[in-house]
Amino acid sequence: MTIKYDYHLHSDLSGDSETPSFQMAERALELGLSGICFTEHHDPDHPDYGIDFTLDFDTYFQKMKQLTARYQGRLELYTGMEFGIMKHLPPVLDELLRKYPFDFIIASLHFVNGKDPYYADYFEGRPERSCYEEFLQAEYETLKCFPPESFDTLGHMDFVVRYGPNRNRFYSYEAYADYIDPILRYLIEKGKCLEVNAAGFKYGLEQPNPCTGVLRRYRELGGELITIGSDAHEPAYLGYAFDRTAALLQELGFRYYTVFKKRRPVTVPF
Question: Which of 78, 204, 227, 269 could crosslink 37 through cysteines, CB 3.0-4.6 Å?
Fold first, then answer.
């Protein structure tokens, strides 16, 4: 496996996972990974879908301290957060970053106008294309509200495609270029990473999120900074499809990926 770090995963401290964190660490050792980053969900003011997507930070950092001691010398463990971005939340993220010593921050859009694309009600009564356009436009506009120094990578950029009625059957970079290019150009301009989220393979898309066409366009525009994560919520999906992901990225011209330690980027060659 040429990808040695998984920088997007969840444990039972995220509202949508029941996996004890040590099980993720044990699976990482089985796979021969060098390190993992626990990027637990924190979505302040999230809509009520019956899941609490807020993180108990004190418990999280206490557990990470214990895990780091347990796996010292065997596995690198890093602290992270997948922060659910909304336009009014930059001050919340800023306060958290002042208070807690994170290694890595993923900025992810999960909710648009009070709805989650994971659920069918986001798509009800509207053309699929309109839903995808709305998501991508909201992602761009919301991302611009956050100071670039407050996050390290944009998570699963075309997340919405996982759950659409036709998923990626009619989706491509070319079909949505007018909505995708502004996001890519913004990340490049600000020196931010684009996440390559391998869970697209798990969801049957046969490619990561964002899709191959988006990653190709990112390189064409001069984008080089990427982070890689499985988005695993259980051990079976840790490092999932990393071999396929690495082969795709190398074919597209990427020669390295980025990990973060104390919010500082470190490049890792394939």
Answer: 78
